[in-house]
Specification:
Layout: H1 2-5, E1 9-13, H2 20-31, E2 35-37, H3 38-46, H4 50-57, H5 59-74, E3 80-82, H6 91-100, E4 101-107, H7 110-119, H8 131-146, E5 151-154, H9 160-171
Parallel strand pairs: 1-3, 1-4, 2-3, 4-5
Bound molecules: shikimate-3-phosphate (S3P).
Shikimate-3-phosphate binds next to loops.
EC number: 2.7.1.71
Protein name: Shikimate kinase
Pathway: Metabolic intermediate biosynthesis; chorismate biosynthesis; chorismate from D-erythrose 4-phosphate and phosphoenolpyruvate: step 5/7
Length: about 170
């Protein structure tokens, strides 16, 4: 699998709460690759949290930083990269990913995602009076784009380890 990957990274995409970070960490461990979380890299580069960047500079500023950080990370592959839920919406980022990585969509249903983000959400996009409506809109807009990932793994209410197994089998 590693030989097949070469310098390409495994890039996890999907809506917030789909398990990109948890699955990504375990997958990286399993394969002996480095795990990188794009949001954490953006926070490090900006020396601010994602919420602070949204609040102080707005979403477009965050998105251009996100594009730059992901493009840089992809040049340092192979690694396992968890992207933020909006990253794959960028044409430039999808292009970078197809050149330097293998994209995997972790597909989850609405209920699973809402249960997860309700438990822990500092996500700026959901800090409004109707997070459920926001999530439905985001899913409707984004799912057709996530579906353009090279591979799709359905990550319902199954242990993250099962998702990792599925990815390893699918990529092998
Ligand atoms: C976002 C998802 C977040 C983060 C930012 C915007 C989005 O990442 O990048 O809050 O647009 O869906 P996670 O998917 O890791 O929560």
């Amino acid at each position: 699998l590693l030989k097949k990957l070469g310098h390409r990274s495994i890039v996890l995409v999907g809506i917030m709460g789909c398990g990109k970070s948890t699955v990504g960490k375990r997958l990286a461990q399993r394969l002996g690759l480095e795990f990188i979380d794009a949001d954490s890299e953006i926070e490090r580069a900006a020396n601010m949290t994602v919420s602070e960047i949204f609040a102080e500079h707005g979403e477009p500023y965050f998105r251009s930083g996100e594009e730059r950080v992901i493009a840089r990370i992809l040049r340092e592959g192979p690694q396992v990269l968890a992207t933020g839920g909006g990253a794959f919406m960028s044409d430039a980022t999808r292009q970078e990913i197809s050149e330097h990585g293998v994209s995997i969509w972790l597909k989850v249903d609405f209920e699973t995602v809402m249960a997860r983000v309700r438990r822990r959400s500092t996500r700026p996009l959901l800090q409004n009076p109707d997070p459920e409506g926001t999530m439905r809109n985001l899913l409707a807009k984004r799912e057709p784009v996530y579906a353009r990932a090279a591979l799709t793994v359905t990550s319902k209410e199954v242990p993250h380890e099962t998702v990792v197994d599925q990815i390893v089998i699918t990529l092998a």
